[in-house]
Q: What sequence folds into this?
């Protein structure tokens, strides 16, 4: 950073800087608040979703204890065939949201398999969709954290660095100009007194 020129031109320039910086602060603060609110909402949704997944696991443990004796591969019964996401634009940050999901159930004989497999498949379908939503929510929170960190850094830069520095420069220039003005008045008075004395002599 170059040496600060202590003149009126620099004073005006620093004044314009402060005005410009102050215009950014409310917008950045509003953006930060919106991101904080969205992050809090996403965290609540994620907590509810995790609770739903735990409820499904509990139901499986309670209602389907015979699952441990099942010969087939339960994990392969329900798979994601296709899913699509939409992008939500929140204050310049693109956040993913699940738009649709298509699940594929591996064919099985309803006559040759256990009677409890049908309710098990229903629970699996619900669980797979919830797990997919959970992954998307985690990604959403990751993006919100990055956006929030950048916005907070930018806000702090203006609020705690650039504005105070420009204000400090303004004070410094005003003091220097005031001192210079006083020195000018004193010099002028001394010169006037010298002229008066010279006239008397």
A:
């Amino acid at each position: 950073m170059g040496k600060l020129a202590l003149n009126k031109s620099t004073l005006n320039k620093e004044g314009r800087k402060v005005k410009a910086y102050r215009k950014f602060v409310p917008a950045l603060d509003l953006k930060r608040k919106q991101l904080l609110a969205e992050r809090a909402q996403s965290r609540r949704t994620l907590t509810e979703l995790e609770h739903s997944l735990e409820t499904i696991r509990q139901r499986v443990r309670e209602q389907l204890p015979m699952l441990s004796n099942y010969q087939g591969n339960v994990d392969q019964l329900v798979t994601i065939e296709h899913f699509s996401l939409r992008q939500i634009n929140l204050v310049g940050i693109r956040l993913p949201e699940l738009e649709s999901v298509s699940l594929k159930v591996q064919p099985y004989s309803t006559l040759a398999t256990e009677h409890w497999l049908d309710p098990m498949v229903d629970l699996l379908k619900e669980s797979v969709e919830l797990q997919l939503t959970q992954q998307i929510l985690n990604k959403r929170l990751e993006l919100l954290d990055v956006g929030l960190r950048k916005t907070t850094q930018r806000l702090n830069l203006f609020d705690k660095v650039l504005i105070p520095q420009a204000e400090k420069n303004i004070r410094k220039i005003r003091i220097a100009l005031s001192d210079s003005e006083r020195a000018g008045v004193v010099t002028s008075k001394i010169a006037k007194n010298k002229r008066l004395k010279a006239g008397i002599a």
In short: Residues 117-200 form the longest helix (84 residues). The beta strands are 78-90, 93-105. Residues 8-193 form a domain with the Helix Hairpins fold (CATH 1.10.287.3240).
